[in-house]
From TrEMBL:
Signal peptide start-end: 1-18
SMART domains in the cross-refs: RHOD
Protein name from the UniProt record: Rhodanese domain-containing protein
Organism the protein comes from: Alkalibacillus haloalkaliphilus
Gene3D superfamilies in the record: Rhodanese-like domain (3.40.250.10)
Length: 126
């Protein structure tokens, strides 16, 4: 009887732990290639460059705004608003993916760019 009670208790605890373990909200966004960025901009998406300020100032896509990933990680989302669509870009695609994960979980409408400014062939402004 004690063995059955112990077995039932262990199974119950494991089931409870498994149910509680997956509380993370899954990111919900699409990823596009660099050649689709300007099309999305024309469709009304704002390009958000999540590189650091010095990287952004060295050259960025015209019309892009700068919001470093480091600020997003601190919970500083201004000037972004949750009812506008954004295309997220960085240097190589790593930081933009992290920013897209973070912003998507905060209910922002984002599209991640799989590559970044290191392979951008279009015009840049400083």
């Amino acid at each position: 009887m004690k063995k059955n009670l112990l077995l039932i208790t262990i199974i119950s605890v494991l089931t409870l732990l498994a149910a509680c373990g997956d509380t993370e909200v899954e990111a919900d966004y699409q990823t596009i290639d660099l050649d689709e960025v300007l099309t999305k901009q024309e469709e009304g998406y704002t390009i958000v460059d999540v590189r650091e300020v010095n990287e952004y100032e060295a050259g960025h896509i015209e019309g892009a705004i700068n919001k470093p990933l480091s600020e997003l990680r601190e919970g500083n989302f201004e000037p972004l608003v949750d009812d506008e669509p954004y295309v997220i870009i960085c240097e190589t695609g790593n930081r933009s993916q992290q920013a897209s994960d973070l912003l998507s979980k905060e209910s922002y409408d984002v599209i991640n760019v799989s590559e970044g400014m290191s392979t951008w062939q279009g015009d840049v402004v400083q």
